[in-house]
């Protein structure tokens, strides 16, 4: 039994760490399904947060807590092999399950690492290596291919290369850290609902974006290794893009020896009603970064990578890490995949997402011009409030009313529930949201 009481948790940790966290203390045993139990205040919170979109099957799913699975997870956790050097049966079982359920046919090449930002880092390194070699093959004598086209309001991480691309509402994430001056392009995000006015607006933005990309390529095409984009920008504001825009990006990449990179760290593993969000748009990337719900992180790549000799999937140690991902994470994600497959949770995400959006749109009728831009794919859902201040007040009120949510952009609230959510949980969330909006926006 622990000698630390729940009410002392924040005090103990804050002696050495910045306590930039929620006030609750998560009870890992008592939390169940869609509810996180706060052992400090002895209350349940409805989980529309899922540990920043990382928990696909909720808390203590029955299939995660069987004696057999806990024994497997336990013995795997006793030792930590360097997966880059030594393979195990358990790793092979994970890769086989991932291949069967989650790896798209068009992205057969796999690299594993710990951390979503490091997944993106290695996506970029793969692109740099490919482009430089491609340039040498066509006769260039100097090393070129070191820049990445990215978009405004993108979030790709907080590590070395990724800092040069992350540019969301909160400047604290990147300021004062050295960055590369890589091409940053306007993001042609959709404003909802998609009426004639909003459609015309987004089409104009798309043309501006494409024109900017073409201008960059015309000036420094040999130095552009990749175009990276989140299929839906999460941290930047839950910004959606049209299929036609992704098709244009695919065309540009194909015509200019550039790799198209999708950052699916947040959008992947069923959240949008597809295993991977790009499947909605019928446009496949050359490289896809994954993380969060996958527990272990990494990249999946198309065979376009192999069109240059000695690419990173052929030459040892070009991309690598000691652990090559965490074996415990692999075992956990393997079980998640099995549950997602057995319980049709991706289909559930699509169905419940539609239900949630309908409820939000109905709720909007009670708050004309005060909540807007309701949007979502599957369970990746958000809406706007008039100001940052109002957004923060609503989130605080939701927390007081025992619902966990997330901010995004300058004035949006986003929901990231586990894939197991049911109509009753959405009804509960909508009732509490209605109450919270009424308390804050009634003036």
Report the average pLDDT across residues: 97
Which overall shape is indicated by the principal axes computed on the Cα atoms?
globular
For the biggest β-sheet, the strand order reads 3-11-10-9-6-4-5
How much helix is in the residues? Answer: 25-40%
Number of strand elements:
16
Please tell me the CATH architecture of the domain at 79-340 by its name.
Answer: 3-Layer(aba) Sandwich
Can you characterise this structure?
Helices cover 37% and strands 15% of the residues. The protein has 443 residues and is an alpha/beta fold. Among the domains are: 79-340, Aspartate Aminotransferase, domain 2, CATH 3.40.640; 351-375 and 397-403 and 434-443, no CATH class. A 7-stranded mixed β-sheet has the order 3-11-10-9-6-4-5, sandwiched between helices. Strands 12-13-16-15 form a 4-stranded antiparallel β-sheet, with helices on one face. A hairpin with a 4-residue loop joins strand 1 (35-38) and strand 2 (43-47). Helix 10 packs across helix 11. The longest helix has 25 residues, at 196-220. The chain is globular.
């Amino acid at each position: 039994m622990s000698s630390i009481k729940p009410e002392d948790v924040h005090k103990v940790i804050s002696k050495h760490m910045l306590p930039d966290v929620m006030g609750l203390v998560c009870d890992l045993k008592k939390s169940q399904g869609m509810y996180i139990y706060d052992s400090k205040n002895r209350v349940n919170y409805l989980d529309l947060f899922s540990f920043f979109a990382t928990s696909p099957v909720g808390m203590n799913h029955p299939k995660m807590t069987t004696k057999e699975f806990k024994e497997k997870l336990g013995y795997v956790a006793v030792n930590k092999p360097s997966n880059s050097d030594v393979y195990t049966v358990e790793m092979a079982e994970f890769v086989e399950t991932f291949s069967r359920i989650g790896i798209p046919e068009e992205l057969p090449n796999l690299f594993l690492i710990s951390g979503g930002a490091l997944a993106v880092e290695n996506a970029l390194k793969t692109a740099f290596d490919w482009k430089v070699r491609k340039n040498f093959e066509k006769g260039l004598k100097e090393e070129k291919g070191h820049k990445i086209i990215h978009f405004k309001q993108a979030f790709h991480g907080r590590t070395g290369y990724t800092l040069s691309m992350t540019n969301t509402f909160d400047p604290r994430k990147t300021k004062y850290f050295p960055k590369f001056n890589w091409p940053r392009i306007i993001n042609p995000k959709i404003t909802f609902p998609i009426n004639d006015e909003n459609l015309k607006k987004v089409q104009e933005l798309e043309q501006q974006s494409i024109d900017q990309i073409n201008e960059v390529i015309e000036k420094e095409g040999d130095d552009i290794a990749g175009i990276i984009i989140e299929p839906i920008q999460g941290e930047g504001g839950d910004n959606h893009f049209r299929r036609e825009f992704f098709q244009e990006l695919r065309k540009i990449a194909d015509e200019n020896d550039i790799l198209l990179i999708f950052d699916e760290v947040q959008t992947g593993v069923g959240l949008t009603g597809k295993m991977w969000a790009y499947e909605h748009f019928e446009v496949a990337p050359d490289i896809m970064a994954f993380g969060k719900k996958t527990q272990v992180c990494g990249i999946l790549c198309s065979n376009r990578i192999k069109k240059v000799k000695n690419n990173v999937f052929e030459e040892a140690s070009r991309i690598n890490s000691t652990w090559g991902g965490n074996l415990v994470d692999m075992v956990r994600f393997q079980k998640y995949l099995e549950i997602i497959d057995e319980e049709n949770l991706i289909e559930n995400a699509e169905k419940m997402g539609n239900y949630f959006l309908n409820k939000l749109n109905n709720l909007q009728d009670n708050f004309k011009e005060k909540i807007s831009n309701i949007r979502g794919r599957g369970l990746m859902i958000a809406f706007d409030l008039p100001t940052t201040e109002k957004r923060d007040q609503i989130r605080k009120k939701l927390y007081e009313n025992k619902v966990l949510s997330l901010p995004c952009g300058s004035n949006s609230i986003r929901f990231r529930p586990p894939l197991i959510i049911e109509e009753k949980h959405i009804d509960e969330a909508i009732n509490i949201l209605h109450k919270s909006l009424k308390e804050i926006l009634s003036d």
